């Protein structure tokens, strides 16, 4: 009866979302240019008396062209002084006070604290409600129980008392209380700091329910890790679910076990024990016989983990795109999970774009949403209602058919100077700092180098000219340790096993000069040549192969 009532309440909630959020977004998409122009005027008027508003004379700006002329592109380092002043109590970026800060690792080693006003928190809720409506309408995602992955929304408080934390935690907190009743994981699990213990809880919760119809996580590598952990530790996990003790379980996970057992389906647990006894193993189809849909990121390198997951899961399990998003903002919402149509949140953010080829040729021809061409790749720039103005997030997105005259957008990869395999967003600055530290510590003579993000192997492969080949193994370990220290997300992904240890190969002498010669021969100006030190393996591995010394 409770399950029936929950589904009825969810249905009513989804219909309300359709009226209040979904339909207004589709109406706005019928005249995208006017919607964006009106929103820009509203943002500038609302924040005209802030420190940044006075600096760029927001009150005098009356058009997009004037906005682009008067307000330069911004990155986090340029906005950081305003953010610090806002934390100190000034109206530096927005007239509305920040209520929360989304924290993520920065490209210069410092954490980035991204302010979120009530508008910022609202955009997260709206993106979630668009996705939830489409999942409810077109799949069986919500018909049973849901397993959700997230970090804690509140990881601490700044000196002004405002909380900060992970955007994934904020997303989870934005779910309606009715829908939250569907989630099988105890809420206390999200605050577990030990990653091994947290994943033990995920495993126990995932095994304890027969009626799991949906899984939600930003990164599919989390589910892949879960599947591998269950496969490798099934005997210990089932021992715990039978109510028996196992020394394998960590204390933080064991503390959640009573609630998991209380919520669990004991007939399902008994059936799994019987199958395990007969067959010696369990398949995901045994564990999740009703799994319908996984909501996750599907773009960029996430497709690699999804392809690996498909070898474990039944063929009819659907993958619904989570939507393009980051700690800075939710860039799109999935309004049609059957086609994974992710529409920009055009009522929340002002979008600008430059064609990828133009930007990389340093030709800054800015376009609006309504000017994008399906199939084309673009660098994206955002003005948000939480204080980001013409913010360069260094992401590349691809336009696709959307709604009205508003295109859909999908994430392709990070832009120049940053790579991303599974959420770590490693920067050139961090790579240079790690190499410099290790060069000093090991008293190395080094030359050129290039690190490749190998999405297939889930690791970074550093090719380096250095003079002591005998220390390659400890040097690789030290470089990996430095990257973990400099980049909190890299450390997190290494700790959870989603990234493997850095691999080191020795470049032959003058390899960097050979690479420079290739680039100049391809048309690069020698006087303006800037060596590529961080790139993707898919673009460079084959080219670099002749320059790597063999063991």
Number of helices: 21
Mean pLDDT: 89
User: Which strands sit side by side, in order, in the main sheet?
Assistant: 2-1-5-4
Q: What structural class do the secondary elements suggest?
A: alpha/beta
- Oligomer kind: single chain
CA gyration radius, whole angstroms: 25 Å
First-last Cα distance? 66 Å
Residue share in helices? 40-55%
Instruction: List segments where confidence is low: pLDDT < 50 over at least 5 consecutive residues.
Output: none
Tell how many strands the DSSP assignment holds: 20
**How large a portion of the residues is in β-strands, by DSSP E?**
15-25%
Shape: globular
Biggest beta sheet attributes: 4 strands, mixed
The total number of structural domains is 3
Keywords:
alpha/beta; four-stranded parallel beta sheet; 20 strands; 551 residues; 20% strand; four-stranded mixed beta sheet; 21 helices
Descriptive overview:
This protein is an alpha/beta fold and 551 residues long. The protein has 3 domains: 29-110 and 344-414, no CATH class; 120-321, no CATH class; 418-547. It contains 21 helices and 20 strands. The strands form 6 sheets. Strands 2-1-5-4 form a 4-stranded mixed β-sheet. Strands 3-6-7-8 form a 4-stranded parallel β-sheet, with helices on one face. Strands 11-12-13-14 form a 4-stranded antiparallel β-sheet. Helix 10 packs across helix 13, helix 10 (220-241) packs across helix 15 (302-310) and helix 17 packs across helix 18 (472-486). The longest helix is centred in the first third of the chain and has 27 residues, at 2-28. It starts with a helix and ends in a 7-residue tail after the last helix. The mean pLDDT is 89.
């Amino acid at each position: 009866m409770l399950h029936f009532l929950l589904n009825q309440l969810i249905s009513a909630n989804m219909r309300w979302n359709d009226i209040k959020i979904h339909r207004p977004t589709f109406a706005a998409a019928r005249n995208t240019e006017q919607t964006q122009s009106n929103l820009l005027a509203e943002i500038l008027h609302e924040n005209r008396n802030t420190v940044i508003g006075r600096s760029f004379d927001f009150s005098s700006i009356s058009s997009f062209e004037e906005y682009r002329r008067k307000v330069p592109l911004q990155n986090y380092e340029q906005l950081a002084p305003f953010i610090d002043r806002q934390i100190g109590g000034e109206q530096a970026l927005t007239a509305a006070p920040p209520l929360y800060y989304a924290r993520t690792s920065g490209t210069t080693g410092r954490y980035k604290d991204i302010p979120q006003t009530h508008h910022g928190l609202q955009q997260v809720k709206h993106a979630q409600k668009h996705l939830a409506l489409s999942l409810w309408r077109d799949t069986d995602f919500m018909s049973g129980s849901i397993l959700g992955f997230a970090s804690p929304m509140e990881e601490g408080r700044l000196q002004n008392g405002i909380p900060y934390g992970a955007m994934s935690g904020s997303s989870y907190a934005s779910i309606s209380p009715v829908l939250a009743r569907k989630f099988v994981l105890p809420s206390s699990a999200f605050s577990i700091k030990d990653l091994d213990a947290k994943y033990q809880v995920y495993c126990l919760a995932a095994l304890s329910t027969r009626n799991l119809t949906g899984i939600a996580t930003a990164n599919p590598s989390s589910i892949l890790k879960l599947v591998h952990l269950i496969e490798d530790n099934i005997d210990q996990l089932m021992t715990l679910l039978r109510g028996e003790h196992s020394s394998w379980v960590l204390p933080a996970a064991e503390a959640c076990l009573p609630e998991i057992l209380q919520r669990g389906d004991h007939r399902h647990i008994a059936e799994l024990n019987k199958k395990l006894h007969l067959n010696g193993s369990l398949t995901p189809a045994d564990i999740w016989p009703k799994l319908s849909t996984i909501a996750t990121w599907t773009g960029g390198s996430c497709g690699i983990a999804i392809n690996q997951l498909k070898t474990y899961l039944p063929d009819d399990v659907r993958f619904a795109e989570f939507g393009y998003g980051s700690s800075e903002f939710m860039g799109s919402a999935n309004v049609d999970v059957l086609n994974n149509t992710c529409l920009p949140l055009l009522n929340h953010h002002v979008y600008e774009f430059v064609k990828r080829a133009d930007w990389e040729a340093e030709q800054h021809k800015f376009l609006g949403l309504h000017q994008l061409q399906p199939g084309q790749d673009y660098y994206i720039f955002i003005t948000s209602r939480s204080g980001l103005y013409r913010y360069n997030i260094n992401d590349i997105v691809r336009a696709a058919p959307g709604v009205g005259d508003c295109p859909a957008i999908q994430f392709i990869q990070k832009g120049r100077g940053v790579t991303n395999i599974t959420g770590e967003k490693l920067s050139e600055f961090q790579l240079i700092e790690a190499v410099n530290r290790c060069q000093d510590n090991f008293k190395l003579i080094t030359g050129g180098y290039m690190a490749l993000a190998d999405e297939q192997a889930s690791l970074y492969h550093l090719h380096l000219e250095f003079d002591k080949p005998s220390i390659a193994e400890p040097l690789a370990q030290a470089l990996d340790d430095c990257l973990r220290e400099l980049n909190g997300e890299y450390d997190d992904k290494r700790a959870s096993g989603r990234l493997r240890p850095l691999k080191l190969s020795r470049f032959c002498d003058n390899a960097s000069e050979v690479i420079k010669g290739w680039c100049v021969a391809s048309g690069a100006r020698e006087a303006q040549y800037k060596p590529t030190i961080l790139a993707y393996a898919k673009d460079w591995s084959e080219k670099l192969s002749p320059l790597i010394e063999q063991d």
